[in-house]
Amino acid sequence: MAIGTWGRRDTLRLAAATALGLPAAAHAQGGRNTARLIVPYAPGGTTDVTARLLTNRIAEELGQTWVIENRSGANGAIGAQEVARSAPDGLNLLYSNEVHLVLKFVQRGVPFDAVTDFTPILRTVRIPYVLVGGANHIHQPDARALLAAVRQEPNRFTFAGSTLGSVGQLGAAALGQKLGAEFTIVAYRGSGPAVNDLVSGAVSLMFAPLGAVQPLIEGGQLKAFAVTAKERVPLLPEVPTMVELGYPEMVFEGWTGIWGPRHLPAEKVAAVHGATTSALRDAEIVRRLAALGCAPILESSDDFTRLVEEEQARNGEITQAAGIRPD
Prior knowledge:
The chain is built from eleven helices and twelve strands. It has helices at 8-20, 46-62, 77-84, 103-106, 143-152, 167-179, 191-200, 210-219, 266-280, 283-291, 301-321, and strands spanning 2-3, 34-39, 65-70, 92-97, 118-127, 129-134, 158-161, 184-187, 205-209, 222-227, 254-261, 295-296.
């Protein structure tokens, strides 16, 4: 697969962060009762928005002040590195997404191990993904016709991914393997630019986070062909799953979660897990998540730890089979 590359500026920023050594404790202005929740992306995306929905309730449950700090760059690696280097005192936590487990397979120079350098606390939110194309540019009437066309003439279709290592990139790579097709996957710097090019026809298709494209589907600018969840999603009840279409392995979903640095004590893991789970059960938070096309995930820290290991192994298999190498 031909993959778009990340920029030189990202490489330089990551190198600078490594050379300087990032702070290992919460900022002095907050004292010992202030925790930083580091979101390794710019404000406004699904990861950032869901973090902000949860933070006040978590802080209230814990009797702390929680401050969200956006440390974007290098596809999430800069912010994650800061947490990996921090003390295991519960005052520096990472709120990231599934890309965290893919980075080492698609990006050179990642300065941490996503499994051994972090303590998984819990996943928070499930994010459905949907295969979409520009309504004025993709003329196949349904998913079966579209997939047949992609199989027959793969050179006519390009796929967008919101970032290197995104569900969009992995989903497109996996689809290429299933169809025996070779097509170009373009990595963007976020869902916004990717979706803009999708609407304009500059790129053909995308496995996109539902929250980012639902208004455009409703407005008629994008056409939804299939979802990559195990079951149909409530906001798109007429859109089939890839499983229904005969691709049982094509189950990909986005998600967000909270990690601490490695060796985070069990009592701190339990405290954050309990407070976050309470927030995820709050009816108003659930309602606001549903409006974004998201749903809470209620699972244990052990569940998250197992998933981290399984997903990283699966990601390695997909990228290797697709010929994706760290760039």
